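Lab notebook page, bench 4
Experiment: in silico fold of construct C2
Operator: M.H.
Input chain length: 310 residues
Purpose: comparison with the prior construct
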Amino acid sequence: MKRVAEHPWQQVVWLGMSLRVPADWEILRHSVRDDRGRLVFADQRHGRLLLSWGKCAAPPDIKRMFEDYRARDLKEDSQSRFTDFQGHPFAANATPASHLAGWMGYRRQRQDQLHNEECLTRAGRHDDIHARWVEAVLPWPNGLDPAIEQQVLSGFAVLDDRQGPAHWRAFGLELISPPGWRLKEATIKPAEAVLRFTDRRRQAIIRRLGAVDAWYDGDAQRYLKRQLDVASLQITPTQYQGAAAVLAKAKEPAKGWRRLIGAKTTRLDLVWSNLPAGSLYHVTTRCPLGEEVQPTDFSVTPAVPEGVRL
């Protein structure tokens, strides 16, 4: 992997929201519910961004909301100072000219117990497409950086993925899920990301396994046979996005009560590696007979920072 930019940025796409953050900001906490949740970003030393959202059918009384925010901040420290994004004294009823890229908000400045200057950006906006209120809180442990503030807030966008395919980009993965599939679970561990999607009785699991130099011998068939304990496994060499891959097919007993009536599920596994990205990718689909979806219906590629090429 070659770096061609000194300070690369990365795009993150999650639950119909797209944003740009510095590449060294990692997601520490995440939610999979589209009606309420949060993404928490941090660098190696500090928390950097809290992006939260909640169901909100219509735009709220923004003036009152930010008056409440400011009152809460003043309760914590009565000496707090508030400015808008242009550096003028903040007014909750300010004109849109004092907003930033669709965000209403303010910068709060105060001194900590050691008399060091603390700064925080608090911003909010209504997501009309998904009917939710979105908030962004950016603490500035090393002082306000207006350029990063500008890029983070102006780089936010809402995607209309309610009817068509959905775009996802996080945890080293970029993928497009077919229409109708919903993210049910995201399990993130060091060198492993697992996203689980469902569409009624159909399931799909997308895995990215990192640090392949330490454990992967390059034999995808051997890897699959170690992972699957299925007697009827059929493995076929194939290609995926220009890389050598293997596709496995097997029949499994259905889950739950359908297992009692002898129902079967078709399991399909697609495995390939991208050594420059240091990752192995494994897509699994489990579907009732006659309702199969191919692993290739989920477009999966590495997600690398801007300014970095494989």
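Observations: Residues 1-5 have pLDDT under 50 and may be disordered. The longest strand covers residues 117-127.
Next step: discuss at group meeting.
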